[in-house]
Automatic annotation (TrEMBL):
Record's protein name: Holliday junction branch migration complex subunit RuvB
InterPro entries: AAA+_ATPase (IPR003593), AAA_lid_4 (IPR041445), DNA_helicase_Holl-junc_RuvB (IPR004605), P-loop_NTPase (IPR027417), RuvB-like_N (IPR008824), RuvB_wg_C (IPR008823), WH-like_DNA-bd_sf (IPR036388), WH_DNA-bd_sf (IPR036390)
NCBIfam families with a match to the protein in the record: PRK00080.1, ruvB
UniProt: DNA binding residues: R313, R318
SMART domains membership: AAA
Gene Ontology molecular function, alphabetical: DNA helicase activity; hydrolase activity
Length: 343
């Protein structure tokens, strides 16, 4: 069974993408949170505008749903430049990338989502394109093959990745600026929710917004999704009125717990405690025990559980902290990791 499309998963499906488009902040000033990234980026953009040159290539890393696509769109908007969007998995051959690069307009922003999943030949072509605004088009095969150099328009690459550690160093080094996107604070998510509620025409009292924000896994995409589920619940069961109790009841119904943990999070924690006595256990073993891919556990569940102080990574594997035992209603063993710090 896959948890990927669950309520608190940070992935978006087709219909959701349309709603997301409507809720996306369009300019840097509207973008909430990530203060450091915003300030750094605004300097990069302003200086590029002053010099009338495309800015350095930008790499954004962070968990799904934290606003990487939104920021890529904002970069293009702030520069007044056109934007081309593609993703690593769509670039299977060098030719796929060459077709895009050779048709870029001067100053265009090229956004490659999931850039760590690009195929090797495309990646190698990208090195030269990023550095020299040039690509080698290979014509023919075998010993008779020739490389024809082709100049391309100066452009800005914006790459996004959930797994910066997987990017080969030569690629990582070619980005002039790396933005690390962190989970959002509850107060920031309250602002995201207030803005979205206004756009969706939902009357959201502050305490209800706080309840949703606390349970959104530090992720704007999830906050917006939970807001819509709370609105549905209020429409059907509470005469359209959203308050803290209605929000809490709706989120309980959708199995989002008081700390925002979803079913995958709880499955991972539960397995770690019940099957492995709190660990240490390797990521792959843990993933198999909940019927998920290691990557899903590593990218989707683990960063948030670590951030909440429920799981720790140690050289010997993942371990549950004392707080994890308490969270699932169990008594932590005396030697539980972090006992005394987290209880
Ligand atoms: N800082 C923010 N302020 C307001 N809304 C935000 C912010 N960041 C993200 N959002 C909202 O969250 C939704 C998801 O953001 P986005 O698609 O940019 O995430 P992402 O990191 O690119 O995710 P993925 O990598 O999974 O595509 C968007 O609808 C956007 O409206």
């Amino acid at each position: 069974m896959s948890f990927e499309r669950e309520l608190v998963s940070a992935d978006a499906d087709g219909e959701e993408r349309q709603i997301e488009a409507a809720l996306r902040p369009k300019r840097l000033a509207e973008f909430i949170g990530q203060a450091r990234v915003r300030e750094q980026l605004s300097l990069v953009l302003e200086s590029a505008l002053r010099r009338q040159r495309p800015p350095d290539h930008v790499l954004m890393s962070g968990s799904p749903g934290l606003g990487k696509t939104t920021l890529a769109m904002i970069i293009a908007a702030e520069l007044g430049a056109p934007l081309r969007i593609t993703s690593g998995p769509a670039l299977e051959r060098a030719g796929d990338l060459a077709a895009i690069l050779s048709t870029l307009a001067d100053g265009e922003v090229l956004f490659i989502d999931e850039i760590h999943r690009m195929a090797r030949p495309a990646e190698e072509m990208l090195y030269m394109a990023m550095e020299d605004f040039r690509v080698d088009i290979v014509v023919g095969k075998g010993p008779g093959a020739t490389a024809i150099p082709l100049d391309i328009a100066p452009f800005t690459l914006v790459g996004a990745t959930t797994r910066a550690g997987l990017l080969p160093a030569p690629l990582r080094d070619r980005f002039g600026f790396t933005a690390h996107m962190d989970f959002y604070e509850t107060g920031e998510l309250e602002l995201v929710l207030r803005r979205s509620a206004a756009l969706l025409g939902v009357d959201l009292p502050d305490d209800a917004g706080n309840e949703i924000a606390r349970r959104s896994r530090g992720t704007p995409r999830i906050a917006n999704r939970l807001l819509r589920r709370v609105r549905d619940y209020a429409d059907v069961r509470a005469g359209g009125v959203v308050d803290r109790e209605v929000a809490a009841s709706a989120l309980d119904l959708y199995e989002v717990d008081g700390e925002g943990l979803d079913r995958l999070d709880r499955a991972v924690l539960g397995a770690l405690l019940r099957k492995f006595g709190g660990g240490p256990v390797g990521l792959s073993t843990l993933a198999v025990s909940v019927g998920e891919e290691p990557e899903t556990v590593e990218v989707v569940a683990e960063p948030f559980l670590v951030r909440q102080g429920l799981i720790a990574r140690t050289p010997r594997g993942r371990v549950a902290t004392a707080a994890a035992w308490t969270h699932l209603g169990m008594t932590p063993p005396p030697d539980a990791f972090g006992a005394g710090h987290f209880t």
